[in-house]
Write a structure and sequence with these properties.
Elements (H helix, E strand, L loop, with lengths): L28 E12 L4 E11 L17 E12 L2 E12 L12 E4 L2 E5 L4 E8 L2 E9 L4 E2 L5 E3 L5 E18 L2 E16 L9 E9 L4 E8 L5 E9 L5 E4 L3 E4 L2 E3 L6 E3 L2 E5 L4 E7 L5 E2 L16 E12 L2 E12 L12 H16 L5 E6 L4
Antiparallel strand pairs: 1-2, 1-12, 2-3, 3-4, 4-25, 5-6, 6-7, 7-8, 8-11, 9-11, 10-11, 11-12, 13-14, 13-24, 14-15, 15-16, 17-20, 18-19, 20-21, 21-23, 22-23, 23-24
Amino acid sequence: MRISPACRPSTPPRVRLPEDDGSHPTEKTEWWYLNGHLEDEQGRTYDFVQALFDVPDAIAGRYNVDLPMMPGATALDTGLTRHQGGHSQRSRMTVRAPYTDNHDLTPGAMDHQFGGLHLKRWDAQTFTVSGPAGEAQVDLRLTQQKPPLLMGGQGEIPMGPYGLSRYYTYPMLAAEGVLHVNGEERRVHGQAWMDHQWGDMQMYNGYQGWDWFGLQLENNTQVNAFRFRSEDGTNASAAVGISRPDGTQDVSEQLRLRPGRTWHSPSTGADYPLEWHLSIPDKAIDLDVRPLQDAQEMVGTPPHTQPELALVPTYWEGGVAVQGTVDGQPVSGKGFMELVGYPGDRIIPRELTQDVIDLARRLGEEARSRPLTVVAATSGASF
């Protein structure tokens, strides 16, 4: 990996690979996140997302109401979207279980199994992922095309005003394999992205929500950009990591986001800004981002209907198309966008937060006394 002189770390990287691909059970919060764009032999296109969360510290009661977790739990949140003829079909599945010492997340190496998902590194360049993507299943071989992108230059960033996160990205993975859907096996190929974060961060403490963009441009530049959003919609903090075509890396905090068209969710009443102008002035990056489809909301479960799933959040997560310029040259590409904390999409009003924390702690205590796996699935039309 090469880092451009402007952002070369003055101390050794905070991330050690491949060891840090493994789990970190002493940390407060950890997750592995994958997304990808796939095409089958019939020309049908799909986006998938898989997020594996782990909050092992149940005894201390440290806990975040806005993660899809109860205290001392492991959770898998997945989705699959098919794009066809200007319409999309989305399914989501969530699996949760109490954290125990014999969970299948491996320290020191990437060999993680939970809820039907198996994520494994085989060698310096190759990963495999198999398991649910919504109500479908994927079996994919992922081949690393670029060096890992260390956020902040060293692989460590502040997460808003409270806490730190170790954070790195595999920004370009070639994907090939099989999508199992509706009893069919469909050969697919495409590209994928993988994030890994862990630390003592306190999600939603001190800010309204966040906006995240993982962009893969056709000139072989990748951009990881996100900001924590203040109550007035301005940046509480921001971080950008850039992987250049030659593998060198840049970082920036000069993220400028200007929202455009919004979409009103008929399911939750949330109004999401789905079109954005994203600029990074000190890196000469100007991009317009628009969704591949509007209806890519991941709808959570209200606490009064299924208390054990009360903390599964609602947010917008989906594929996007990108056009703009880098260093004055036209570029296009694709990526993923995540929008969290917009009015209408919080299933837990702030005035009820303490009540929900008390409920979740009680559920966590009950869960530790018995095996529990909860599955929630929603689906649109047939894929």
